[in-house]
Amino acid sequence: MPQTAPLSVRHLPLLLRCSLAGLLSLAAALLAPAQAAPAPAAMAATAPGAPQLLRVQHGLVQENEVALADGAQRLADAIGRATGRRTLWVAHDALGPALAAQPAAWAFVKPPSLSANMLAKGWQLVAVALPPHGFGTDFIAQPCPGHADSVLLGGPTLSTLGIADSSPASCVAVRDVWKSPAAVLLAPAKGSLVDKVAAKMWLMHAPKLPPTVHVQYQNAVTDFMRVTHAAVIGVVTPLVSAQWRAHGGVVLAHQQMPFWTVLAAPDVPAAQVAKVRAALLAPDAQPLDRSLHVAGWESGNPQVYADFLRWLKR
């Protein structure tokens, strides 16, 4: 029986040899150490015409996520059209750490204390939004039936907040709320800007703060007061207190604060800042205004934010 010569690569058809070579190359590539992709910041620095970043910080009002995303996208689109560069946006609960991790060209900031701190670090004020209901921190309370100038404080419903020794429910004249032993504050997020302003407001009228209970969002303040009829003093902003008043609630006091800002990073050219400002102030920006729930824009004054921060820290 004739012997068959050993099969070697040279006996294989050319197409099959090419296929084997391709498979060997692929295997070598898969077995080689993986090369890390460049970090986003490095890509942005090296790629010409790379997208620019808009960072967004919302406040402590829990809103419709779809509506918030729509407003942020419309603002990013407006900045993109004005600057001629695609603009991506990212929302944050805390903007400071995000900016430290990766810089951004633009920011949409709601807390005025954060705007003040960023302006002090060289960020440029592009525009200030106009509030539809005024802006600041409000104290709200339950109305006292039959007493137009009084509010309802105290009572057994406070036990649901962990207040064991609450005063009996009583009608308290608005002017006497600050010294009432029945006063209990219900405020959002301990240490937040609204919480700090509320404490400062109260201490302008009284020597010490009343018992204070904290929740996560402003909406939780009014939701709790509406559902349980708890006779507390709520701490919210006018975006929330306007709805409370519309349903018969009482607004006890108001402290004005500067409104939301659009800021540009220190290295953004002045010409780009001017283009975005002009786009926001233009008459055809009304669809954007509606999506962000603002009444328009103005150029604004950075000193207003510095003065507010100085007042807050006094």
Shape: elongated
Average pLDDT, all residues: 83
Radius of gyration using CA atoms only: 29 Å
Tally of DSSP helical segments: 11
Helix content: 25-40%
Helix/strand/pairing category? alpha/beta
C-alpha termini separation: 107 Å
H/E element sequence: HHEHEHEHEEEEEHEHEHEEHHEH
Largest sheet: 7 strands, mixed
What fraction strand?
Answer: 15-25%
Q: Catalogue the unreliable spans.
A: 1-48
Number of strands: 13
Task: Provide an overview of this structure.
With 314 residues, this protein is of the alpha/beta class. Strands 5, 6, 7, 8, 9, 10 and 11 form a 7-stranded mixed beta sheet that branches. Helix 3 packs across helix 9, helix 3 packs antiparallel against helix 10 and helix 5 crosses helix 11. 35% of the residues are buried. The N terminus is likely disordered.
Summed up:
By secondary structure, the protein is of the alpha/beta class. 39% of the residues lie in helices and 21% in strands.
Task: Describe the structure using short key phrases.
single chain; about 325 residues; alpha/beta; 6-stranded mixed beta sheet; about 40% helix
Question: How are the secondary structure elements laid out?
Answer:
Blueprint lengths: L13 H18 L8 H7 L5 E6 L7 H19 L3 E6 L2 H7 L4 E4 L2 H9 L3 E6 L6 E9 L2 E7 L16 E4 L11 E4 L4 H11 L8 E4 L2 H11 L4 E4 L1 H9 L3 E7 L4 E4 L5 H12 L4 H7 L4 E2 L3 H12 L1
Parallel strand pairs: 1-2, 1-3, 8-9, 8-10
Antiparallel strand pairs: 3-12, 4-12, 4-13, 5-6, 5-10, 5-11, 6-7
